[in-house]
Specification:
The chain has a domain at about 1-120: Tetratricopeptide repeat domain (Serine Threonine Protein Phosphatase 5, Tetratricopeptide repeat, Alpha Horseshoe). About 75% of the residues lie in helices and about 0% in strands. It is built from 16 helices and two strands. A hairpin with a 1-residue loop joins strand 1 and strand 2 (about 20).
């Protein structure tokens, strides 16, 4: 669920999520990119045929600046940022590597090189760059608030899972969650790592955290379903299967599964939340409000339940107000 955002917001790279995370390369590049994106809409609608776009012009100017001053690392990093933002990952990687030839411990270049390698599908190549970046950043006094460090930890963990080395994914994902405990994607990936290692109880804890942060996180519900099935927890399995159906847009199946789960787990507020969300999608707002009222009674401080309850209640009141208008 993490969108590709490395250079869209240098200060907060966020996730999806919270995806967030950027490179300090900025200086010039932040200003350049702001001008590019601020002017792009106008250019796209009103440019004359054959006219060069602001993005293309910025890249050309950055390339010329590097030709004029090839030993300036900041100019190369600015060019790498522009290449990366425009999906030219091989060129972004090449510029970052040029910087690293002269400055092997340049953390900005390491992060660019690691992320560009990932986007080129070269996970094994990306890991040394990202792990060196982590080693440089994790000892700094600001490490626990370092969003770039959190990003690197996340992608190292995700990469080890993809490479079939889930044991190695645990430490970086746990470190990412120290920095951003509300990172649902990191929770999900940590759950996957535990699941792959046969540690379903620990996996469930992470999947459950993830869906509390993102109530329609279908992949996390799929992970929950796997673990509940493995552990033989049939009533909880109905709930997870219902939420998978909900996430896939099969609301009739979701209703059936969640009603069964509610009959077996009447004290579980998450089941009632799922049922309320499903009724809302089916257009039965009265039934949705009843289910969400039950969920709120069981978990009065749950933000997701409060938000859903307020939304459904407001929709019902709007309908009733319209019906009352002569």
């Amino acid at each position: 669920m993490k969108p590709e955002q490395l250079f869209q917001n240098w200060q907060t790279w966020a996730t999806t999520e919270n995806l967030r995370r950027a490179v300090l390369l900025v200086g010039v590049s932040l200003v350049v990119l702001s001008l590019i994106f601020g002017g792009y809409y106008y250019w796209d609608r009103f440019h004359a045929r054959g006219q060069v776009s602001p993005t293309e012009r910025a890249i050309a100017e950055a390339e010329q600046a590097v030709r004029d001053n090839p030993s300036d690392p900041q100019l190369r990093l600015t060019l790498a940022a522009l290449y990366y933002e425009n999906f030219r990952y091989d060129q972004a990687l090449a510029e970052a590597q040029e910087v690293l030839e002269a400055y092997p411990d340049n953390d900005d270049a390491l992060l660019v090189a690691g992320m560009a390698s990932l986007r080129l599908g070269r996970r094994e190549d990306a890991l040394p760059y990202l792990e060196q970046f982590i080693a440089l950043r994790e000892t700094r006094p600001t490490a626990q608030a370092d969003m770039q460090l959190e990003m690197a930890e996340y992608f190292v963990g995700e990469s080890y899972i993809a490479l079939g080395q889930s044991e190695k994914a645990l430490a970086p994902l746990q470190a990412a969650l120290v920095i951003v405990p509300t990172d649902a994607d990191a929770r999900y990936q940590l759950g996957l790592a535990y699941r792959n290692l046969g540690r379903c109880e620990e996996a469930l804890t992470q999947f459950q955290h993830a869906v509390r942060l993102v109530p329609d996180f279908t992949e996390a519900y799929e992970g929950m379903a796997y673990c509940y099935r493995t552990l033989g927890q049939e009533s909880a399995l109905r709930y997870a299967e219902g939420m998978v159906a909900y996430g896939e847009g099969n609301y009739t199946l979701a209703q059936a599964k969640l009603q069964e789960a509610a009959s077996q787990r009447p004290a579980d507020p998450q089941v009632w939340l799922g049922l309320g969300l499903t009724y809302e999608k089916l257009g039965d707002l009265s039934a949705a409000l009843d289910a969400l009222t039950q969920a709120q009674h069981l978990a009065p401080h749950d933000l997701a339940i409060q938000q859903a309850y307020g939304r459904v209640q407001a929709a019902l009141e709007a309908i009733q107000s319209q019906e009352a208008t002569p």
